[in-house]
Amino acid sequence: MENGAAERWGFRGNQVLDKAASITVRGVLRKVISNLNPQDRRPVITLGQGDPSAFSCFRTAPEAEEAIVDAVRSREFDSYPPDVGVLPARRAIAEYLSTDLPYKLSPDDVYLTVGCGQAIELIIKVLARPGANILLPRPGYAFYEALAAANHLEFRRFDLLPEKVWEVDLEGVKALADENTVAMVIINPGNPCGNVFTHQHLKKVAETARMLGILVIADEVYGHLVFGSNPFVPMGVFGSITPVITLGSISKRWIVPGWRLGWLVTNDPNGILCKSGIVETIVSYLNICADPTSFIQGAVPQIIEKTTDDFFSRIISLLGKTADICFDGLADIPCITCPHKPEGAMSVMVKLNVSLLEDIDDDMDFCMKLSKEESVIILAGFAVGMKNWLRITFATEPPFLEDGIGRIKAFCQRHAKKQ
Ligand SMILES: *Cc1c(COP(=O)(O)O)cnc(C)c1O
User: Fold this and answer.
1) Is the dihedral angle over the CA atoms 408, 359, 380, 23 positive or is it negative?
2) Which of 290, 335, 347, 354 gets the highest tally of CB atoms within 10 A of its CB?
């Protein structure tokens, strides 16, 4: 570059975005991955992010693949889709979600998005009017914080309580909320904790939100992926207590995160979201953003109708098995404690006791050295709001996971403080 060019050109990148994006899980994982030792001949074991689609045992249902082919071949989906999504897909999702609700959703309650990620972006944009604030769980999903920061929406964090099976600290929620609070977010089944909220707890969440006059955003991207004692209860069940906006996608249950098909659904039998103008703003924003690919939308009815229960139960039993391997394997590592066996989703939060280790400063140092010495990638807890915790994703092929847990164990033994 010519000397002085930077002075001549007045443009700059938007640094608000740079700062917001620096808190994403991907950014932290990238750093951990960059510390891998290329000399290590063993395969790299990635337990950092929940995308098991690369493993043959987690391959999606053949019915879903056929649905895509059929949609393309039909030539019915070559045009631009409507901003809110194609009607057959909206109808299929409304029916799919209504089976677990005490009332029926209409296709008009459903808005199609580019994965659940864009549904998060959509609701954050819709709520980000000047002065507003939103309550987010800690630990949580860093995407919410990054998008809130990027859109100048103030966020406040309430705790999930490890000693109470990661339930929401409802007293904390009440203490954080003020007259500018617009919503609280829950993620159920939980990422990163692998917990599944009970019917009773969800009802209390709804009652608390009603008392505060806020809506509940329920991230149910892991909906139905449960393998413990609590069944999956959608937050929409309590939509008549307080308005609920449900976010979801086919990414996790069908193990096709790359297909980028998600939804935002209004669960609001009392019509409060419409009266408050939220629905109007949702439609406004959909007018000016990108849509999910048309033939993926077109395939949705078949994907939902034709996927067999066999597929779902096979995936759930596989996740249950990998959760066991992870929990049992970590149980005999002294510097790691796992407060609860995961009962859903794909990851677990475990506490790291650095005082039992010789030369490890904190969670990030642990992950960086583990990457270098054992070629195992896990996420440092600070990335999801909890310093000196670790998030481990167990949704991988069982032998691979066993190998990974074995290497973590060897690493901890090698770094243990000598008595
Ligand atoms: C994976 C994930 C998402 C994003 O889902 P996509 O459909 O892949 O965009 C949103 N929320 C949580 C909690 C997730 O784990």
Assistant:
1) negative
2) 347
Per-residue pLDDT tens digits for 3-52: 556 678 888 899 988 888 776 788 889 999 999 999 999 999 999 987 89
Average of pLDDT values for 381-404?
A: 96
- Cβ–ligand 1 distance for 115 under 6 Å, the answer yes
**Residue 124 · residue 146 · CB < 8 Å:** no
pLDDT tens digits for range 312-345: 999 999 999 999 999 999 999 999 999 999 999 9
Q: What is the pLDDT of residue 316?
A: 98
> Could you tell me the distance, in angstroms and rounded to a whole number, from the CA of residue 416 to the centre of ligand 1?
36
Between CA 188 and CA 186 the distance in angstroms is 6
Domains plus CATH for the chain? 16-59+310-414 (3.90.1150.10), 62-306 (3.40.640.10)
Site to probe by mutation for ligand 1, drawn from 221, 246, 296 as the one with most ligand atoms within 8 Å of Cβ, is 221
Write down the residue that tokens 């976010």 correspond to.
247
DSSP line for 168-214: E-HHHHHHH--TTEEEEEEESS-TTT-----HHHHHHHHHHHHHHT-
CA of 117 relative to ligand 1 center, distance in Å: 6
DSSP per position, 335-392: TEE-SS---BSSEEEEEE-GGGBSS--SHHHHHHHHHHHH-EE-EEGGGGT-TTEEEE
Q: Which atom of ligand 1 is nearest to the CA of 257?
A: 8
Q: Determine which helix (DSSP H) or strand (DSSP E) holds 167, and give its type and residue range.
A: strand 167-168
Q: Whose CA is nearest to atom 15 of ligand 1?
A: 191
How far away, in angstroms, is 201 Cα from ligand 1 center?
23
* CB of 251 sitting under 6 A from ligand 1: yes
Percent residues over pLDDT 90 in the chain: 91
Take residue 229 and report the two structure tokens written for it.
């004692």
Is the CB–ligand 1 distance for residue 384 below 6 Å? no
Distance 304 CA to ligand 1 centre (A): 19
pLDDT of residue 5: 60
* Size of the chain in residues: 419
Give the pLDDT score at 173: 98
d(CA 271, CA 280): 12
For 121, the enclosing helix (H) or strand (E) is helix 115-127
Sheet with strand 379-380: strands edge to edge: 336-337, 347-352, 389-393, 379-380
Q: Which atom of ligand 1 is nearest to the CA of 345?
A: 15
